[in-house]
Design brief:
Strand order of the largest sheet: 3-1-2-4
Number of helices: 5
Strand content: 5-15%
Distance between the termini: 69 Å
Order of helices and strands: EEEHEHHHH
Shape: elongated
Radius of gyration: 34 Å
Structural class: alpha+beta
Helix content: 40-55%
């Protein structure tokens, strides 16, 4: 279930629900919720008007703000998430890789690339001179088969 990235008023347009959700808490449903505003900067009445402005057809008078009054549950959930974050192995999110292995792979790729290089003009001319067959002879030979 998705969690609120910051504390604020959130609106779910399908069922027209307006809720005050605390940062880190799960949204009331799995539907898509849109951030409306910061409760420090706007009152519930202003949040209703903002919803009506952003979503035409929504009646601000019919919207009830859902306040999650189970703050104890939210605090327990947030503490659990913080514990999980602390218990993770420290790191900066970088991938642990073997540099020597990567260097050996790079050398092998260089060797493969060198082996795949096209022959030079001189080498092509030498090969053509070795064979007595002309282009016309090759066409005739191909048509005989």
């Amino acid at each position: 279930m998705a969690r609120a990235p910051e504390t604020g008023f959130y609106f779910e347009p399908i069922t027209e629900r307006l809720a005050l959700v605390i940062e880190g808490s799960p949204y009331p449903t799995d539907d898509h919720w849109a951030y409306v505003g910061d409760p420090v900067e706007m009152t519930p009445e202003l949040a209703r008007l903002e919803v009506a402005t952003r979503w035409p057809g929504v009646d601000p008078e019919s919207l009830d703000v859902e306040f999650d009054t189970n703050f104890e549950k939210a605090v327990v959930e947030i503490e659990r998430l913080q514990r999980e974050e602390r218990d993770k192995e420290p790191g900066s999110g970088e991938v642990d890789f073997d540099v020597n292995f990567l260097l050996s792979q790079a050398e092998a790729l260089k060797a493969s690339a060198a082996a795949m290089q096209l022959p030079g003009r001189g080498e092509v001319e030498e090969e053509l001179e070795k064979g007595e067959e002309t282009v016309g002879d090759a066409i005739a030979r191909a048509n005989r088969r």
